[in-house]
Every structure is written in C-alpha cells, then in structure tokens.
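Q: I'm writing a short explainer about DUF1419 domain-containing protein for a general audience and would like to include a description of its predicted shape. Could you first generate the structure from this sequence?
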Amino acid sequence: MTLLSVRKVYQGIADRRQMFRMFDRHAQRPNRCEDDASALYRGEWFEIGQAEHDHMFEILPPLWMRGDMFTMREFLTGSVTSVFLSLTIDGAPRYFHGYCDLADKSSPDRMRVAIIERESRPVKAMTREERLEHIWSSTHDDYRGYAGERFAEDLRGARTVLCYGGQRGTVLKLLDQLTEAEISAKLPVHLLLPERQAA
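A: Of course. Here's the predicted structure. Afterward I'll give you a sentence or two in plain language.
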C-alpha cells in the first residue's frame, strides 16, 4: 500500500483501550527492531475523546504546546512523536491524535489542516484507503499480520487479514487486494456509504 502523507486510520472516536492499541498498530511488523518505521507512522491520525486527550496531557509534561496542540516528549521512532489536537470543527470541540515527524517543523500544522479539511466535509463517506486502514486498525492482532514465505518475495511484509472464503473456509489475503464485497463484510453497516460520496 502506498502510504498517503496524512491519513485517517480509524473511523469514529477511539475509546481509551482502542487509543492505546492504535498507538502501535504496526507492532507485529517483521524486523521490528531492525528497521526505521517512521514512514509507517508518520501522518497517521484518528479521533479520540476529550477524556483521552486530557489523560495524555497529564501523563508527562509535553515537549511543546501551541494553542490547540501539544506533543509527547517521548518519540515513537526516529523523530516521529504523538501530537494531540483540540480543534473546533463545525462549531463543536473535537480531539485527535496524530503522528508527526518533528524533523519537518511544518508537519503538525499540515496535519491540523488535513484533519479540519477531512472532518469538515458535509458527507463523512470513506475512501477505499480509509476503509482499508479502518479494517487494519479494528482487526484483532490474531487476525491480521504480514505476508510471509507463502507469498511471492515481492509481497512479503505486506499487510494481511483473515477473510471468510465461503466453502474454502478462512483465507489469508493481502489487505490491499480485498474486494469491495470483502471490505463491506468487514465494516460496520454505518460505514458503508458509497465511496463516490467521499470526494
């Protein structure tokens, strides 16, 4: 999957359990201790509740605070760290977590702009990429993983999920290669708006 520079990775408001799980949604990746995972995390964002936002503010003193955002002092990988945002969108206060690469000083502001633009759309339909990211984020670790030796060499390391294959039983599929029917089967019904409405 080609990673977009700033991307929504979970639909809805993540509760505390889901928020902590989402902080490292790539934990099972191959060669975890050997690679620089900055590109995997950089630009990911999702919505959280006010209580989760405030809880994270109280954990440690932030690295920096600016108006409607603050960053965590601890870095996830390289120069990528958590940025928490408190934004007013369509007159309502909302709260978000994102990963920004602080080596690029403009990345927190680009994330803020992208979140406001995405969440201000009149129709909240999801693009195919957002649907796949939501499936990855909401699938239990036991049912998602990374392509191994069963796959062609050029596909190894790509994200996989288990799918119901009818008479074939459960099958392991590349996340990027899910059909629209498989995507629909994995999404809650309230997230099944047609993609054409997302533009």
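A: For your explainer, you could say: The chain has two domains: 7-119, 128-198.
Q: Perfect, that's easy to follow.
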